[in-house]
Amino acid sequence: MSPETRWRTYAACWSMSDEERSGALLTVADPAVSYRDPATNLAGVDELATYMTSFRTTFPQEHFWIDDVRHHHDRSLARWRQVSADRRTTMQGISIARHGDDGRFVDIAGFFHE
């Protein structure tokens, strides 16, 4: 899976139902993935999935759109937008990931305004 596809799948996970997310998230993130952003710091795919569920509950009509992906060696950076149902951008940010030997994310850091 290319880094671009991996980021797009990861972005889609934020808006998936819990049932859809469980399989999709493991295709892009290692079970022991670390995740942090200005609001949280967590470890493991289960904690990340729970955090994603809270996003879906808080913003049921919004999703993430990946605008650009840059990558080299075992790192990648994605520029993203949070988009409303009427296609307005409600937030912008970047996320940076370190990839494991199998290409899945092992560490993710998101940057955005709270």
List keywords for this structure.
114 residues; 6-stranded mixed β-sheet; globular
Instruction: Report on the biggest sheet.
Output: 6 strands, mixed
Q: What percent strand?
A: 35-45%
Give the termini distance in whole angstroms.
31 Å
Overall number of strands: 6
Report what the structure shows:
This protein has helices at residues 3-13, 18-28, 45-58; strands at residues 29-37, 40-43, 63-72, 75-83, 89-99, 105-111. The mean pLDDT is 96. Strands 2-1-6-5-4-3 form a six-stranded mixed β-sheet. The chain has 114 residues and is of the alpha+beta class. It is globular, with a radius of gyration of 13 Å. It has three helices and six strands. Helix 1 (3-13) packs antiparallel against helix 2. The N and C termini lie far apart (31 Å).
